[in-house]
Write a structure and sequence with these properties.
eight-stranded mixed beta sheet; binds flavin-adenine dinucleotide; alpha+beta; 8 helices; 21 strands
């Protein structure tokens, strides 16, 4: 069997890259093993235009956010689903210092921030002492609907092999690859944290970051916003909320921990007025990078091997932005954005 491209992984990266290849008229096959706790399946799906304690603008957000909206609209039309919704973040200040930091940022730049609003409006549902600000617009990608719907679409069109990819069976030539009877002009790894141990890409400066989340049930809570007080309270399904997440650079295990569950349930008891019932507890590792920039492009020593990875905490906004760039690069030789192109590690990769 011949395809133009073989892709490994159908997380958010493999989803957008395969869609872009299809739009450009390439043939492709995606190999993805159905695993439960991959980053895209555990993620909330938030696109937040500001970041960190200092509430600074997220990298490239002015361009990336409107573009991502168009990309999700394309998938909505293709799959007949709701892929994304605006859900602004109500940011309850956990301390007077955080209130001050938000007010200071607001004085400097009001884009994406609001301090207007009835101070009492959320008091029926949440305990808070230091007021709140609103981050607007924010979006929530409907990952639990989008990823399975796209998977069904790929499967129906015979574009998906649901199995483990075994790198020892890959044969690489200069301008093509062979894998178990499949020949392609290139293979592109969209395999998330699996690339940390890749024979071709493990030397890239990845920085695994673990996140734990709870899924909880609570009746009668508002669902039009995401709420935040140190952790995020995200409307998920009817009366079900995604709560998280931790953000750990050092960890001994990739599994959920008692410490996170106990700490988070205790803070929910203080914060949420309705009774909260724990339904599930998950953990996953973000394919983050030391420089906090993606890894996109083809291996300098093996031009038939590519990577689309390293989206860190921002897969939902960066994957839709960089997937067409990579396809334009393939199709017309257009240069990739230098901050994301793996060409910046040419010397390191060339040694392999
Ligand atoms: C707790 C948490 C919360 C997050 N919240 C957000 C958020 O709100 N907003 C946001 O933008 N980002 C968020 N992220 C980050 C986001 O999840 C990642 O940026 C994104 O999911 C990375 O997608 P990916 O496609 O690169 O990797 P993955 O989602 O890991 O996909 C890789 C795929 O490759 C498959 N695969 C790997 N190896 C093989 C193999 N050998 N054979 C077959 N298949 C294979 C896996 O099964 C998987 O399906 C969060 C992450 C975590 C952990």
């Amino acid at each position: 069997m011949y395809v133009d491209f073989l892709l490994i992984g159908q997380g958010i990266c493999g989803t957008f890259l395969s869609r872009e290849l299809q739009k450009a008229g390439y043939s492709f096959l995606v190999i993805d093993e159905a695993r439960d706790d991959t980053a895209s399946k555990v993620a909330a799906g938030i696109i937040n235009p500001v970041t960190g304690r200092r509430i600074v603008k997220t990298w490239m957000i002015d361009e990336v956010m409107p573009f991502a909206l168009q990309q999700y609209a394309d998938l909505e039309k293709l799959l007949q689903i709701t892929a994304i919704e605006q859900k602004d973040i109500v940011d309850f200040f956990p301390t007077p210092q955080m209130k001050h930091a938000f007010a200071k940022r607001y004085e400097e730049d009001t884009q994406y921030l609001s301090l207007q609003g009835d101070p009492e409006i959320w008091k029926d549902h949440f305990n808070y002492d230091f007021g709140y600000g609103t981050i607007t617009p924010c979006y929530l990608v409907n990952l639990p609907v989008l990823l399975p719907a796209y998977r069904r679409y790929l499967k129906a069109a015979n574009h998906l092999l649901e199995e483990n990819f075994d790198s020892t069976l890959l044969q690489v030539e200069k301008e093509k690859i062979h894998y178990k009877g499949i020949t392609a002009q290139a293979i592109i790894f969209c395999d998330g944290i699996a690339s940390f141990n890749s024979p071709w890409f493990s030397m890239l400066p990845f920085a695994p970051n673990k996140g734990e989340v709870l899924l909880v049930e609570a009746a009668g809570m508002p669902t039009q916003h995401i709420f935040k007080k140190g952790i995020n309270w995200v409307p998920w399904r009817e009366n079900i909320f995604w709560v998280g997440s931790s953000y750990e650079w050092q960890f001994n295990s990739d599994q959920p921990t008692d410490a996170f569950r106990e700490r988070t349930m205790a803070s929910l008891q203080q914060w949420i007025k309705a009774p909260v019932k724990l339904l599930d507890h998950k953990a996953s590792v973000r394919p983050a990078t030391i420089e906090r920039r993606p890894f996109v492009g083809f291996h300098p020593a093996y031009p038939a091997i590519g990577i689309f990875n390293g989206m860190g905490t921002k897969g939902c906004s960066l994957a839709p932005w960089f997937a067409p760039q990579l396809v334009q690069h393939i199709q017309h030789g257009q240069p990739l954005q230098p901050e994301a192109a793996i060409k910046r590690f040419q010397r390191m990769l060339g040694k392999k």
